[in-house]
Amino acid sequence: MIKLPKSLTTVTTLSKSVALLLLIALPFLGFMMGIKYQAAVDHNFQLSNINYSLNYKVSPTAGSTVGKVTITEEDRGKIVTVHVGNEIIFSLRSGFTWKANFSNSNIVKEIISNNSHLTYEAVKLGTTQVTLLGDPACYPHCMIPSAALSLTLNVIK
Asked: How far is CA 154 from CA 10, 49, 82, 118, in A?
């Protein structure tokens, strides 16, 4: 065992003051650092979710051999352009039951609705806002939050 000099092991008024200062200051310092870190994380998250109006996804031309357009959660906020007659497949996160809501439901026709895969056909020219809402399969018993995304669907000739 190492023997320390008495001057290093003696409790003094200064050592008590330093200990009290650290006991009070360190939790506040940690709290402030946590606030700064969370602000930086939130800021980066918000910046990564900014959607620009010039963000387009265009489908193949109508009547071509590939008349299907697959929309995923990566298309959140985009303007997706399809042609009349194209099949629109929403391929979304599994483990959720998804529902699609269209602001103008006259321009699409539902073909198949199967939990994470929704299939529609573009039947009429126009533009619609699409809101996709997904509830977890275990809803409401589990604590998993619902998911949502929206995009603009533009049907052209």
From this structure: 79, 22, 6, 18
| Whole-structure pTM value | 0.57
89 & 64 share domain: yes
- Round to whole Å and give the CA distance between 12 and 99: 70
DSSP-assigned states of every residue in 60-76? PPTTSS--EEEE-GGGT
Q: Which residue has the tokens 């980066």?
A: 44
> How would you class 74 by CB atoms within 10 Å of its CB: exposed for 0-12, middle for 13-18, buried for 19 or more?
exposed
Summarize pLDDT for 88-118 with one digit per residue, the tens. 999 888 888 888 899 998 999 988 887 778 9
* In a shared domain, residues 96 and 112: yes
